[in-house]
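Subject: N-acyl-D-amino-acid deacylase structure
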Amino acid sequence: MDLVIRGAAVIDGTGAPSYRADVALADGRIAAIAREGDRRPTARRVLDAHGLALAPGFVDMHAHSDLALLRDPAHTAKVAQGVTLEVLGQDGLSYAPVDDRTLAGVRTQITGWNGDGHDVDFSWRSVGGYLDRLDHGHGGEGVAVDAAYLVPQGTVRMLAVGWEDRPATAAELARMRRLVAEGLEQGAVGMSSGLTYTPGMYADDAELTELCRVVAAYGGYYCPHHRSYGAGALAAYEEMIAVARTAGCALHLAHAVLNHDGNRGRAPELLTLLDAARAEGVDVSFDSYPYTPGCTTLAALLPSWAGEGGPASLLARLGDDATAGRIRHALEVEGADGCHGVPVDWDTVEVSGVTDPALTPYVGRSLARSARERDEEPWTTARRLLTADRLGTTVLLHVGDEDNVRTLMRHPAHTGGSDGILHGAKPHPRAYGTFPHYLGRYARELGMFSPEECVAHLTSRPAARLRLSDRGLVREGNRADLVLFDPDTVAAGSTFEAPSGLPTGIPYVLIAGRFVMEDGRRTDVLAGRAVRRVPGA
């Protein structure tokens, strides 16, 4: 054996009670599990794990590390949490498949998520090319953690239709179907949408259904950021269930939350809706993060009509006083579709990151506060930021409800997803703390569920959604993607005041049997590779 982890409390990912055992690893897999009383295995190295829990590696079902994995070999924000696999290509917008024109548009649109990518060599254009790039990142060694990819529907529409708000023609729809099929053939695990982001939000249900039929034919799943998390949120969830039902496609709801005052305490209604769909045979799961504020780009709050034509057209509209006045009315009076149908409250919109360093004084302040400091209207401040930062501003939205967060996380269809945006001077702490926050705050301190049940939400359930039969469980023959943590001390080190703090109580993380965290420190091991859809799984 290469390694024996001696005397750990094994939390195996099934939700069953933990048990004391020695776990032996060989060739990147779990070779033997010896419970108390069994013959103890030996190995070249023995790690004394008394006082620690041993769990499968955590799976981040909603990550925005599409460029971060290529930019930062350490990627400590995720590795230190015990994350061994991330799912990328989220919210319908990412960097493959693209042509040169589409790539330029995507880079501008999601600068607030990932930076503008000036430090990344965009040598790929296809999904397969991007996955190959992950496999050979950082001088050919690989990347920090494993990564799966969703074909981004908004990017696909951008490539086939453009930025126009209109139905796709038959030829354009056929091309989108081919692009989705090619992405799945090249290894994507499903398709994502961002239905409050242009241009993906211009797709109607018939178009989405046709694309989901392709996803279903390849055994993938559909992961929508649906049309509203505010006014009309429950109707938006129903819409996605109907699309999945009609297409016969598995459905995984992205960052499933109910936000804004009108949805306080309504999580049981959502769970009733999901349970009814599951009882009908619709394959539904979802992810969430254990925090109330959300995070997106400031530009995403604007009405969809303002973004038609792409980023350059949006900036031109912001530069025209009359059109900017219409945008303001949509935001502050009507409740723009980009703002989930709820009139914006500028006190709840906090700037978390800017692209232009000259705008740094806005970071960490609500737009209402910055406006008061400058003796101007909040819209004036917002418009200046949007224009000066070329749409690259990221914001926190303080519009969540804690009761909803707690109710949703206990459901058996729930999985963990950070929705972590690593770009910006003051990012959301979920990017650095989601998984230890689940274990420390919600399992240990609040007793929302047992550690064993909590681990199942973060390991075996997402692995099942991804159809990875050899991950998510501490079981002989499975990949040795493992986390050792102290159940008594594990906690997120990130806070809203200091969002980049690293967790405590997670001293060891292994991917394929190799230590990527050892004695609480990041090693130089790059064990991460692309995880491709398994044909016929």
